[in-house]
Specification:
By secondary structure, the protein is an alpha+beta fold. It has 3 domains: 107 residues, no CATH class; 119 residues, Sandwich (Jelly Rolls); 75 residues, Phage tail protein beta-alpha-beta fold (3-Layer(bab) Sandwich), CATH 3.55.50. The chain contains 8 helices and 18 strands. It is elongated.
Length: 334
């Protein structure tokens, strides 16, 4: 069977004769159906079947079919046709109706996707495979009631943090407006609000961020590891690695702060802003010290204690003011 014909069939672009040809081929053996399923998987991941499935306006199809029947009947009033021709015409119309009805039934029987929505507050939920998600405000995610055997595919509009259950036989794929994220099992954040840049921040494991050219179907991808950030701009539509680190981008989820070789001046500034406190130092050279760690849902007391222990500082607290005392860090001390 011609692969191009199978692709047209999956895209809904095949002619009636081609549809008959593929259906007859599928009925020959179960292996043929498995081959078609494998092609569908490969093409979907390559972007050739994105978006899918192709929408069918069944009302429009039925109306066109009815118009054709009415037009034919008007023509038959003006001339006489043979019984054999009439039988052939009726057979062709019946075959077309069967095809349309079959497509209609297929669409009607397709299970409706499930939807998780957040409006004014962060929502935490679990997907059918056991993966955990946190959905930021004004965001939604749709997913099937049961994932396919060869993949776990969801659609995201907005921002969400994913902790994906590891399963090499079922890669986890997130569809956004202009890009895709593919993983086997890891933790990461995806920001993909409509008409904005797509950003991915990885906190654990490896994540593949890729796009598909709608004209050439070429795929461009980058791999992101823990602590890295990638983005896709609306204009370029190509994934790039972002050099700068923004520690507080995940603070919305569970008060997570990710510091990667961040100087204490910036660390203290963020802490003062988010925890409504004041941090003073005995020596401004202390600001040169650089911190690499992650805080998640920690109290400010816990955070100050970790920083003090890391750099051998001492600290005191008076009301909402923390005062740190200790030696500064030179260029070689982190």
């Amino acid at each position: 069977m011609d692969e191009k014909l199978l692709l047209r069939f999956l895209l809904g672009e095949a002619t009636r004769d081609e549809m008959h040809q593929v259906q007859e081929w599928l009925e020959l053996s179960d292996e043929n159906q498995k081959l078609l399923d494998s092609y569908e998987t490969v093409w979907a991941e390559a972007g050739k079947l994105t978006p899918n499935p192709v929408a069918v306006d069944t009302s429009s199809v039925w109306q066109k079919m009815s118009d054709r029947v009415d037009k034919y009947e008007e023509e038959q009033k003006k001339k006489t046709i043979s019984l054999q021709s009439r039988i052939r015409w009726i057979s062709s119309v019946a075959a077309a109706i069967i095809i349309v009805f079959g497509v209609y039934q297929l669409l009607v029987k397709q299970p409706q996707p499930l939807l998780i929505t957040s409006a004014q507050e962060v929502v935490h939920d679990t997907l059918p495979d056991g993966s955990n998600i946190s959905l930021n405000v004004n965001s939604n995610i749709s997913y099937p009631k049961k994932f396919a055997k060869n993949e776990r595919r969801v659609q995201l509009d907005g921002e969400a943090f994913f902790h994906v259950e590891h399963n090499p036989k079922q890669p986890f794929i997130i569809e956004t407006e202009n890009a895709f994220v593919k993983v086997l099992g890891t933790s990461f954040n995806v920001k993909a609000y409509e008409n904005s840049e797509i950003e991915v921040i990885v906190t654990d494991g490896l994540v593949q961020l890729f796009t598909v050219d709608p004209e050439t179907m070429d795929t461009t991808a980058i791999l992101l590891k823990a602590g890295e950030k990638g983005k896709v701009s609306g204009k370029e539509r190509k994934p790039i690695l972002v050099a700068e680190s923004i520690p507080d981008e995940l603070f919305w989820m569970d008060y997570t702060l990710i510091f990667t070789d961040t100087d204490l001046k910036k660390v203290f500034s963020l802490l003062e802003n988010y925890y409504n406190i004041k941090i003073e130092v005995s020596d401004k050279e202390m600001y040169k010290c650089r911190l690499s760690t992650t805080f998640s849902n920690n109290s400010i007391e816990d955070i100050i204690e970790v920083i003090a222990a890391t750099f051998e500082f001492e600290y005191t607290k008076e009301n909402k003011t923390y005062t740190l005392k200790g030696n500064g860090c030179d260029d070689e001390k982190n």
